[in-house]
Amino acid sequence: MTTPAVTTPTSEIIGILGGMGPAATADFYAKLVSTTPGSSDQDHLRTVIWSDPTIPDRTEALLGTGPDPTPWLLAGSRVLREAGATVIAIPCNTAHAFVPRIAHHVGLPIVHMVGEVARHLTTIGPRIHTAGLLATTGTVRAGLYQEWLDRFGIRLVLPDATSQNDEVMTAIRAVKAGTHDDTTTTLLADAARSLTAQGAQAVIAGCTEIPLGLPADAVDVPLVDPALVLAQALVRRATTEGENGQGWGW
């Protein structure tokens, strides 16, 4: 009896560097699966997940109140490489502030989630001139989205200090703690309204916990989910076997 050959649509193996936090990692993998076209198990992408919740808090590191997570990120990336990954995805916005420190030591391309979001905004019609950002204080302070959106001529607006601390960060902590509820959604929706009042034509859910607490229909403009955008970019890359420069890689 001959065993039928197993076929896969691509030789790409997606390495997910996760644990920041665990719920966001699980949500990202679910989005990768739902984004992948196919009618059978064999149509889906091979994936390796390294979920390490011991990685130090990225915002605390950027604010100078906690340890540098770079050694953990580098170690996790090497685990993924040794497990056979051919490309790395990091479903944590704030962690991208540390990508330049690890990119040239990993030996694999890293598809840059923030860069993918910036490019995605140029595909939304009518043209986005101003985008709002809901993100950790670390992501805001690091200027990750400011830098990338500037490249595409998109203005970025942010919550004021009170909204950032009392609404956005409170909501993010609730999601991480598994205690989010309707109050969490209200906090994030109020923060989003402060951005649309400043002219935002789209709101970036720039922390992977935010989509878990803020439904798209709670915002009056398009709510951009970077985790979903990253999943779509990985599917495009895998479909073309990484050719033609797919993805904002390092």
TrEMBL record:
<dbReference type="InterPro" id="IPR004380">
    <property type="entry name" value="Asp_race"/>
</dbReference>
<comment type="similarity">
    <text>Belongs to the aspartate/glutamate racemases family.</text>
</comment>
<dbReference type="Pfam" id="PF01177">
    <property type="entry name" value="Asp_Glu_race"/>
</dbReference>
<keyword id="KW-0413">Isomerase</keyword>
<dbReference type="GO" id="GO:0047661">
    <property type="term" value="F:amino-acid racemase activity"/>
</dbReference>
<dbReference type="InterPro" id="IPR015942">
    <property type="entry name" value="Asp/Glu/hydantoin_racemase"/>
</dbReference>
<protein>
    <submittedName>
        <fullName>Amino acid racemase</fullName>
        <ecNumber>5.1.1.-</ecNumber>
    </submittedName>
</protein>
<dbReference type="InterPro" id="IPR001920">
    <property type="entry name" value="Asp/Glu_race"/>
</dbReference>
